[in-house]
Structures are given as C-alpha cells and as structure tokens.
C-alpha cells in the first residue's frame, strides 16, 4: 500500500509560541489513522494544516505531501482546488456547519458543481442519490429543507454527503460525532465506516475518545503538547502502551475498572510514575 | 405563496400603523397652541373677524369630522391647502419632497457602496495595521457632523477649486447634469459620515460570519476566500447591516434639514421649518405625516427584506400565522 499522506518534521507556530514541534505521520491509501490527544495537543492544527485552513498568522515549516503534491507553501487557489475534491473534512459542529440561509440540497450540489462542473439536472440526481446513501430518509424533502429544519444527526449526515460526494482520497474527521447524542453517535460512526469503505478513502480521524477511535481506525497516534508520543496498530497501543501519557489516557477512559472507594486516576499520576500500568 | 401571504400581512400592518399615526399627528398638531386664523389676521385683529375666518376655514367644526376629511384628502392626494397662500399643499411640498428624497436615498446608497467593501476589508484585516487604521478612522468620522464635512467639501471643491456649485438646486427633469452637480457635495457630505457608522456594523457582521462554522465549511469544500464570502457570507452579514441601514435612511429623511440649509437645497426639512415659523399648520401637519409615513415604510421594507433573506424568520412567521 502506497503512502497517500506523508507529513515530515511539520512545525507550526503562532506568534512566539510553537504549537507543533515537528511531527512525522504517514497515512497509506485507504488506511484509517486516528489521532488522539487532549485539546491543545496539536491534533486539530495538524488537520487544518493539511487542509490549508490555518489562519494566515500561522508559520508552517516542514513537509506535507498528499499523493506526491507538496502542500506546504501551496497558494490558497492551489489548496482550494484540492479541498472538497481530493481531501475533505468533516467537523465537530453539525448544528452550525451548514449555511442557515441556503437549502441543504443546494449546499451539497455546490460541492459537486464546484469541482466537476456538473450541469444542474445531473447534479441534483447525484445529490439525491448521495443523501439517500448517507441514510437520510426522504432525500428529496431533505434536499429542499433548510438546515434549521433538520436534526443534528441529519445535518451531520448531510455534511458527510458533502465531504464524500466527490470521492476524495482522504477524509479528515475532526471529532465528527462529539456534538451528537450517544445513540446518534453510534449510527453516524457506523455510517462513516461504511461510506469510507465504499469510497475506498483514507481517513485521518481526530478524537479525544479512545472508544470512538478504536471503532473506526486501524492505527493510532497519540499526541501530547505538539508532539507524537506514541503510535502503532490500535490493538497494540491499547494493550501495551509504551508512553506514560498513553497509559494515563487508557486508565482514565476505563473508569468502570476502578475499584470503588479509590480516587479516580488523573494523567499526572502516570507522569510521576505513582501509578502502575493497567 | 406563503411568502406572498407574509408580505401581504406586513403591508396590512403597515396600513394599520399609518392610520393610527395619522390620527396621532392630526391630534397633536391640533392640540398645539396657536390659532391659524389669528395668525393670518395678525396681532391687532378683533375676535369677531377671527371667529368669522375660523368659520370660513371650517376650523369651528368638530375635530373628528375634520380628521376624516383630512384623511380622505390624504388618500386622494389632496391634503388640503396652505393656510397662508391658499395654494394646494401637494404642489408646495411635492418638489421639496423630491429634493429630500434624492438627497437621503442617494446619500444612503453611496454610504452602503462605500461601507460594504471597506467594512469587509477591515474585517478580514482586523489584526493588521491597515484594518486597525480603518477602524480607528471610522470612529473619528462617525463623530463629525454632516454639516462640517459639507462646509469643508464646499470650501475645497466649490470655493477653492470651483469644480462644483456651492449651493442651490436644479430639478432632475429640467437639467440632469446640473441636478447631479448640485447634489454631489451634499450627498458626499452625508455619505461619508453615514458610511463611517455603517462600516463598523458591516465589519462586525463580517467578523461574525468569518468565524462561523458554515464559512469554514464553505472554505473546506473548496471555495476560495472571496467566492466563499460572496456565496455564504454576504446574505448572512446583510441581515444585520440592513437593519442599521434602514434606521440610518429613516433618520436621514428627517435629519437632512441641516445639510439642506448648508447647501441651500429647497428640501422638505427647510419647508417644515418655514411652515412652523409661519404657523402654517396644514403644511406642518402634511410634512410631519410624510416623515412618519417614510419611517414606517422603511421599517416595513426592512422587515420584508429580513423575510426574503432568512428562512428562519420565514419559519417563525409561518408558525405565528397558522
């Protein structure tokens, strides 16, 4: 399997602070890589750099190659051609991620027409097909609805349709289910799983939730304070964490295994080595 | 169809508001001290001749009857005649209304044309030097009164450079070029100050939009910055801006009197002042009613714009109507 996304020594700074201290990361074609870490660990910044959506005050150095194209230093026009076509992104906030003044079908159709120049009639057919493919009931009605008329889960499905309609090679998911109800979360994750398989797309899946990542991904990277502290196949990392931070993450995620009466573990305990590995 | 129904409801409520407003205007003007007949006859007239004139003018009849008559006149375009000259009010204030309407709408139009791109630019560059400078300049320009800008423009372009007339007015129909030359300076004077105020609202509206998740989505699906702003930013930002621009336009109609006086434009404001000084109450009453009507119409147009631009407002309307 060839490498689709290859990041080498990526450093990102804002003002005097450096948010990312030189990370290396490879996503193979069709591979599912999870990035896990607390907020501020640099996982979202990595995603935004790959999309070319960092604020223009950010300083970026190193290398991001997508299918052989160098993305660091690419112009916004160059990035715009790739975004939504070769690489697309699904964000955390489905409630607010759609334009409230535009019908959902038109927003999905825009993505298709922007990159493929499809005529309106054919675009409409494809949009309906895509909306039903992401499990939206009555796709014709949904396509004529405004975002405020849909539920959070329906909106996230519409956004997944937007992200996948051009069959991208890489889909970046930034906590795509965090804002949803737990029951809806499970269904949307399953859908995402199927759709990624069907499209043969690779996925970079960002989350702070180990359970979610282990459901979707094959490999996982653990980020902490702007560096990757651990990486490997997901089963191996979960069963045998090498880094104390990873061990802490896993232990704090399994609170059902804490004996009653004992204090809940916090990650600092693991740094100090006070706590054994689980 | 539902949209048309909602617009019809807006227009109906406008008609209701106008009716109520007309009664208030009529009642207030008639409650004012100062008798028209006494004013016409002068300070040395005897009570008997005043009473005779009141009778001739119909001022002795019941208030409500006179209101209904006045209202009927308004609706048929004949709001009575001047108490002093006897000329029909329509022919007195028609040309003046045209001057004020041109001045206010052209000023606001130019203000919007200046404010939208500048506000957008200063929103995008809000953390850069030029964005901060624009923001600071608008703060200063907002505080400058229209007439001061008008005087400066007049001194530079009319007195020193002699490019444009310093004052006066030519109707559009008699000489379009002269009409334009007379309006350039007053329109510019008002537009600069109004634009400064509007830029602040445009800027904050666009800063909100640029931080919105849907704007990020638009960028993430491949829109370049400017097309993303046009397709997904303008409509959303305009909701906030239209409200402010509507208020500004309404206050320009009522407040253009100062600039009209600086440039000696024969507008409605100056006419109102003259009529008040002359105690020409029928004319005062008609002009006040026109001002009230303009404000109400502008508010209705703003509401209709809201309705057309924002599907969420439409949804609320449909809920309340059903």
UniProtKB/TrEMBL annotation, chain A:
According to the entry, every stretch annotated as the ABC transporter domain falls at: 5-250
What GO terms fall under cellular component here?
plasma membrane
Q: Write out the GO MF terms.
A: ATP binding; ATP hydrolysis activity
Keywords, in A-Z order: ATP-binding, Cell membrane, Hydrolase, Membrane, Nucleotide-binding, Transport
Instruction: Describe its membrane topology.
Output: Peripheral membrane protein
Q: Reply yes or no: does the keyword Acetylation apply.
A: no
The protein's location, in the record's own words, is: Cell membrane
State its Enzyme Commission number(s).
Answer: 3.6.1.3
Keyword Metal-binding in record: no
Question: What's the chief localization of this chain?
Answer: membrane
**What is stated as this protein's family in its record?**
Belongs to the ABC transporter superfamily.
Q: What is this protein called in UniProt?
A: Adenosinetriphosphatase
Annotated source species: Propionibacterium ruminifibrarum
From TrEMBL, chain B:
Q: Does the keyword Flavoprotein apply?
A: no
Cell compartment(s), UniProt: Cell membrane
The cross-references to Pfam families, in alphabetical order and at most eight, read: BPD_transp_1, BPD_transp_1_N
- InterPro entries on file: BPD_transp_1_N, MetI-like, MetI-like_sf
Any stretches that span the bilayer, and where are they?
12-32, 101-124, 136-159, 179-199, 241-263, 283-306
Q: Which UniProt keywords apply?
A: Cell membrane, Membrane, Transmembrane, Transmembrane helix, Transport
Q: ABC transmembrane type-1 domain: which residues?
A: 97-302
Q: Which domain of life is it from?
A: Bacteria
Protein name per the record:
Binding-protein-dependent transport system inner membrane component
* Species annotation: Propionibacterium ruminifibrarum
């Amino acid at each position: 399997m060839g490498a689709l996304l290859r990041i080498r020594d990526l450093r990102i700074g804002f003002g005097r602070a450096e948010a990312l201290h030189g990370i290396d990361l490879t996503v193979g074609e069709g591979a599912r890589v999870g990035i896990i870490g607390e907020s501020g660990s640099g996982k979202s910044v990595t995603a935004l750099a790959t999309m070319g959506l960092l604020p223009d005050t950010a300083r970026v150095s190193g290398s991001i190659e997508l299918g052989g194209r160098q993305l660091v230093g690419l112009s916004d026009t160059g990035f715009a051609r790739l975004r939504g076509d070769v690489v697309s992104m699904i964000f955390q906030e489905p409630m607010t991620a759609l334009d409230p003044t535009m019908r959902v079908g038109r927003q999905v159709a825009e993505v298709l027409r922007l990159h493929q120049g499809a005529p309106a009639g054919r675009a409409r057919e494809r949009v309906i097909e895509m909306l039903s493919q992401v499990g939206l009931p009555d796709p014709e009605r949904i396509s004529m609805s405004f975002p405020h008329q849909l539920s959070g889960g329906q909106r996230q499905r519409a956004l997944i349709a937007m992200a996948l309609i051009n069959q991208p090679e890489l889909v970046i998911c930034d906590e795509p289910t965090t804002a949803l109800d737990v029951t809806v979360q499970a269904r949307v994750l399953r859908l995402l799983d199927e759709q990624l398989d069907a499209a043969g797309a690779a996925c970079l899946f960002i989350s702070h939730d180990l359970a979610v990542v282990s459901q979707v991904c094959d490999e996982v990277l653990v980020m902490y304070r702007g560096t990757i502290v651990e990486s490997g196949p997901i089963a191996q990392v979960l069963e045998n964490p090498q880094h104390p931070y990873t061990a802490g993450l896993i232990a704090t995620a399994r609170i059902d295994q804490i004996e009653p009466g004992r204090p809940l573990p916090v990650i600092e305990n693991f740094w100090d080595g006070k706590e054994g590995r689980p | 169809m539902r949209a048309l129904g909602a617009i019809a409801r807006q227009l109906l409520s406008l008609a209701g508001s106008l009716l109520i407003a007309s009664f208030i205007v009529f009642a207030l003007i008639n409650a004012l001290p100062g008798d028209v007949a006494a004013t016409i006859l002068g300070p040395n007239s005897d009570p008997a001749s005043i009473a005779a004139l009141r009778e001739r003018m119909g001022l002795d009849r019941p208030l409500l009857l006179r209101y209904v008559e006045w209202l009927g006149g308004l609706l048929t375009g004949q709001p009575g005649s001047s108490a002093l000259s006897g000329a029909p009010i329509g022919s007195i204030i028609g040309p003046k209304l045209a001057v004020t309407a041109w001045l206010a709408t052209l000023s606001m139009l130019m203000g919007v044309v200046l404010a939208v791109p500048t506000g957008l630019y200063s929103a995008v560059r809000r953390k850069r030097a030029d964005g901060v400078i624009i923001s600071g300049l608008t703060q200063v320009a907002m505080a400058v009164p229209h007439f001061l800008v008008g005087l400066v423009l007049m001194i530079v372009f009319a007195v020193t450079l002699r490019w444009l007339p310093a004052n006066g007015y030519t109707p559009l129909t008699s000489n379009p070029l002269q009409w334009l030359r007379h309006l350039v300076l007053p329109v510019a004077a008002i537009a600069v100050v109004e634009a400064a105020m509007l830029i602040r609202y445009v800027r904050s509206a666009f800063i909100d939009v640029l931080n919105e998740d849907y704007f990020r989505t638009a960028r993430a699906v491949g829109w370049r910055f400017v097309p993303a702003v046009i397709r997904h930013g303008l409509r959303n930002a305009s909701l906030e801006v239209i409200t402010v621009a509507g208020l500004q336009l309404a206050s320009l109609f009522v407040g253009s009197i100062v600039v009209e006086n600086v440039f000696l434009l024969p507008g409605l404001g100056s006419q109102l002042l003259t009529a008040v000084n002359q105690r020409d109450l029928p004319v005062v009453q008609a002009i006040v009613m026109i001002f009230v009507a303009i404000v109400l119409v502008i508010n209705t147009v703003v509401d209709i714009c809201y309705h057309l631009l924002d599907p969420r407002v439409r949804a609320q309307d449909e809920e309340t109507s059903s």
